[in-house]
């Protein structure tokens, strides 16, 4: 998905490693490397490195937004790092903000279970399968969202995370529903 400002967005369900901790702390993966999302894109290991280093050098931070709305910041990301699996995030939803209180309640209840990244593509190429390989991106924000694009991971509130088998079954159900709605 691309916004009017050229900002692209990738959606990822909060993963089995993502949990709500101590009320309003969340952590997990906002993006996984090497997994094709529903838009046909694959983020390559190292794609976020330069952007994260540049932000750190400039004393700036990736924003935590509600549903990609720049007018609705809902918290802060205390830590964002690339590791062998993807883009790992740790942060706090701020309940002093009205939308933050709502977001914390929805995440805790399991009604919201997605993360989505907002970024600008710096370097990408098509592979033999026609997938776009994102080699370098400029990361702007990570949002809590209703409908993520990468269904391989989900959030559990305080240890209620789904296992890998459940995730694949859920992804298959979403794919089946999408095909049925499209009349295929």
UniProtKB/TrEMBL annotation:
GO terms for biological process: proteolysis. InterPro entries: Peptidase_S78_dom, Prohead_protease. The keyword Hydrolase applies. One of its GO terms (molecular function) is peptidase activity. It comes from the Bacteria. Residues 24-157 form the Prohead serine protease domain. The keyword Lipoprotein does not apply. Keywords: Hydrolase, Protease, Viral release from host cell. This is HK97 family phage prohead protease. It comes from Albidovulum litorale.
């Amino acid at each position: 998905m691309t916004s009017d400002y050229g900002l692209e967005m990738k959606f990822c369900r909060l993963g089995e490693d993502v949990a709500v901790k101590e009320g309003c702390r969340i952590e997990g993966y906002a993006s996984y490397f090497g997994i094709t999302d529903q838009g046909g894109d694959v983020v390559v290991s190292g794609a976020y490195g330069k952007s994260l280093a540049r932000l750190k050098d400039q004393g700036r931070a990736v924003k935590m937004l509600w549903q990609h709305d720049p007018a609705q910041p809902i918290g802060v990301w205390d830590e964002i790092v690339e590791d062998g699996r993807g883009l790992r995030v740790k942060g706090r939803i701020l309940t002093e903000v009205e939308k933050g209180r709502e977001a914390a309640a929805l995440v805790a209840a399991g009604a919201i279970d997605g993360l989505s990244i907002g970024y600008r593509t710096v370097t990408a190429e098509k592979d033999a399968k026609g997938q776009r390989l994102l080699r370098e991106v400029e990361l702007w924000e990570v949002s809590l969202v209703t409908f993520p694009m990468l269904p391989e991971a989900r959030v559990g509130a305080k240890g209620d995370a789904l296992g890998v088998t459940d995730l694949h079954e859920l992804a298959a159900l979403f794919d089946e529903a999408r095909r049925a709605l499209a009349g295929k």
